[in-house]
Amino acid sequence: MNTSFLDEALEGYVCNTHKDYQTIGWTERLYLHVPPESISNFQKWPQKPENFRRVLLEYTEKLRVLNEIILKAMAKSLNLDENCFLHQFGGNQRLLSTFNFYPPCPWPDVLDANKPHSDPSGITFILQDDEVEGLQVLKKNQWHTTPLAPDAIVVNVGDQVEIMSNGIFKSPIHRVPTNNKRERISLAFFFCPEPSFGEIKPAEGLIDEKNPRLYKNVIDYLRHFRENIQHGITRPLDALKI
Ligand SMILES: O=C(O)CCC(=O)C(=O)O
Ligand SMILES: [Fe+2]
């Protein structure tokens, strides 16, 4: 995975379709930070189609609401205060949207379109291609392909919610293999706690004598993630396990 993933400086178009130099996988990507506007760099946003900015802002506003509903429901399902997870996101949560274009790849046996990883976000929303499947999730050492479901949103738990839920909600390893015939498009929206807001930690209400704390507290998980990836650690979440 790209070492600068979720870096605040990362914005704009990245092409990664080089046979001998692979970071994230065989993909071309557009990364855009969605407000707070202090971070959004609208100059890097496509100027055409003209309604692009309005549609993305409206769409992500709806996702923000959905993110809150889901985080509250997840907390309530564990008999926690409904704001328990949401509080850890701070008032200035981050939202990175990525537009993935996976062109056909002449080396499908050698390269992945998106290498195996777990998301460093809190919650990720994925809009998959209508016609070409590709997203696979690892469960019990087997890859399972996510079925096509046009108009459905795939909701993926990220590393930070795995920590907050003390491992009850798992941040799955997933990947996209390459396809040598068909191109594929997906959109992924990463909701992340505000990096400087406070520590990310397991909810107190989930820890007792029978259920010990499984993760260390961490300040700025995204930085932890980047630093670990830079040192060749493929699953930065594991470094926080007690
Ligand atoms: O293309 C997909 O379906 C998944 C994308 C993904 O996992 C990511 O961007 O982190
Ligand atoms: Fe992902």
From TrEMBL:
TM annotation in the entry: none
The protein's matches in PANTHER family, at most eight in alphabetical order, are given as: OXOGLUTARATE/IRON-DEPENDENT DIOXYGENASE
Q: Which InterPro entries match?
A: IPNS-like_FE2OG_OXY, IPNS-like_sf, Oxoglu/Fe-dep_dioxygenase_dom, Plant_2OG-oxidoreductases
The organism's place on the tree of life at top rank: Eukaryota
**What molecular function terms (GO) are annotated for this protein?**
metal ion binding; oxidoreductase activity
Q: Which SUPFAM superfamilies match?
A: Clavaminate synthase-like
Instruction: Return the similarity comment.
Output: Belongs to the iron/ascorbate-dependent oxidoreductase family.
Protein name per Swiss-Prot or TrEMBL: Fe2OG dioxygenase domain-containing protein
Annotated Fe2OG dioxygenase domain residues? 91-193
Question: Which UniProt key words apply to this protein?
Answer: Iron, Metal-binding, Oxidoreductase
Q: Which organism is it from?
A: Coffea canephora
Pfam families reported in the protein's UniProt record: 2OG-FeII_Oxy
